[in-house]
What we know:
The protein has helices at about 15-25, 35-40, 55-65, 80-90, 110-115, 120-125; strands at about 1-5, 25-30, 45-50, 70-75, 95-100, 130, 135-140, 145, 155-160, 165-170, 175-185, 200, 210-215. Strand 3 (about 45-50), helix 3 (about 55-65) and strand 4 (about 70-75) form a beta-alpha-beta unit. By secondary structure, the chain is of the alpha/beta class.
Amino acid sequence: xxxxxxxxxxxxxxxxxxxxxxxxxxxxxxxxxxxxxxxxxxxxxxxxxxxxxxxxxxxxxxxxxxxxxxxxxxxxxxxxxxxxxxxxxxxxxxxxxxxxxxxxxxxxxxxxxxxxxxxxxxxxxxxxxxxxxxxxxxxxxxxxxxxxxxxxxxxxxxxxxxxxxxxxxxxxxxxxxxxxxxxxxxxxxxxxxxxxxxxxxxxxxxxxxxxxxxx
Length: 215
């Protein structure tokens, strides 16, 4: 099941609507202010979650009138962000793939928190991606193969999620590596490029943040 989470960060409308037209998600979760984007574009989510402290009252009233849409409201003082809660719902609902729109923006703390929130999906074996007009962000571990024709933009960066990633090998890249320990205080993994039709990433320990980006 292809799940889309619409979160409350910056959303490029053209990108989002084109993505939805092509991907045709099976299940849509609106997380807090992401509900406003859904309302503005007449999108009917399958599940709504949040504390709704940043959603106009008339918007949440309109969706409450649709009794068929489950709404889970939280106290603004809580231990998890709305996006984290939406991700947990996507995982437990049986998603086979998860996409997040509106998970980046001007609040760097929220952006970083959302990237770290991808870890439970990784541990559950569910591919999860944060998408905006410049970046496609995911977490990877073990072995991953990338096709140049499917990459998002010209650049791909690898950053450890944690102190370090050991035994990192990159093949098919402009800057290859063999059995390298990549630490989180190094910029070595930034702005690489795929040069082969098929590129190969493997690591012995750790998790990498993979950011495919375009200017």
